[in-house]
TrEMBL record:
Organism: Thermococcus aggregans
Domain of life of the source: Archaea
Keywords: Lyase, Schiff base
Example of a GO biological process term: small molecule metabolic process
Protein's name in the database: Dihydrodipicolinate synthase family protein
GO cellular component annotations of the record: cytoplasm
């Protein structure tokens, strides 16, 4: 698995129920666009606002709908045994990978985090993508990532949602450098090209929900060694990523942008998250207009 992986939004109706029709439409759109992977129950998908049964339901529904690309399922929780159960479920329904963010809320040592991931890796066989997102959960240090990667063959890679190219560099050089099959993905659109240049494998990036053609154009240009074009697209992605600074949350930013671009997904977030108002919407509209035409 390489390239452009999309952390899927979870579409909701006005009554906060899951909008299955919009989910199917969006997954079909992304597959037709040619993305390399689709990731359900992601941060962008508001997984912390989903019940345990809804996470399983969405994982099963996604498995039905994703037919032409890699299928990833988020199985993170603050409860290790819940992570194991969700991961076993993803394995049983035939997901290709699980993506597991560290426990959040309570600070944990590297040893505690190692034990958490070890228990999951030992109880399951499905390839695991670690998910480093220190702005929202316990941080995964480079020595910890390396220890997990070297001890467990089913810990297959990492998504790095960290605004530090030095950290990503160290993971690529020190972990992937010793274990060639270990995948390194950025979680930040603005670091997509940086990560590829350093030897990473791609990106799992939220803006690809509404502008996958831009991410795919960058990846294609890089693969074809058309670096002038790759830099041009990288500059656009860097500007596009400012959408996160405008809105109050990842999901609000992405759903507003999707609404502006004409997607059927409603601008609805489950509480405690709230959608930003007209002022933010106008700023996002201006940002998107300044990038027009998106290839």
């Amino acid at each position: 698995m390489r390239g452009v992986i999309v952390p899927l939004v979870t579409p909701f109706n006005e009554d906060y129920s899951i909008d299955l029709q919009a989910l199917e439409e969006h997954i079909n759109y992304l597959q037709k666009a040619g993305v390399h992977g689709i990731f359900i129950n992601a941060t962008t998908g508001e997984f912390t606002s989903l019940s345990f049964e809804e996470k399983k339901f969405l994982a099963e529904k996604g498995r039905e709908l994703v037919t032409s690309t890699f299928y990833l399922v988020g199985t993170a929780s603050t409860n290790t045994f819940e992570v194991i159960e969700l991961t076993k479920h993803a394995q049983d329904i035939g997901a290709d990978y699980v993506v597991i963010a560290p426990p959040y809320y309570c600070p944990l040592s590297d040893e505690a985090l190692f034990n958490h991931y070890s228990l999951v890796a030992e109880k399951t066989d499905i390839p695991i993508i670690l998910y480093n997102i220190p702005s929202c959960a316990n941080s995964l240090s480079v020595p910890l990532i390396k220890r997990l990667a070297m001890e467990y063959s089913n810990i297959a890679g990492i998504k790095e949602t960290i605004d530090s190219i030095n950290h990503v560099r160290d993971v690529i050089f020190e972990v992937k450098g010793e274990r060639k099959d270990f995948k390194v993905f950025t979680g930040l659109d603005q670091h997509f090209l940086n990560t590829l240049i350093l030897g990473g494998d791609g990106g799992i990036m939220a803006c690809a929900n509404f502008a996958p053609e831009l991410h795919l154009a960058l990846y294609k240009a890089f693969e074809e060694k058309n670096f002038e074009k790759a830099v041009e697209y990288a500059k656009k992605l860097a500007k596009l990523s400012k959408v996160y600074n405008i809105a109050s949350s990842f999901s609000s930013a992405i759903k507003i942008a999707m609404s502006i671009r004409g997607f059927s997904i409603k601008p609805v977030l489950r509480p405690p998250y709230t959608m930003d108002g007209e002022e933010v919407r106008e700023k996002i509209r201006e940002l998107l207009a300044s990038l027009d035409p998106v290839p």
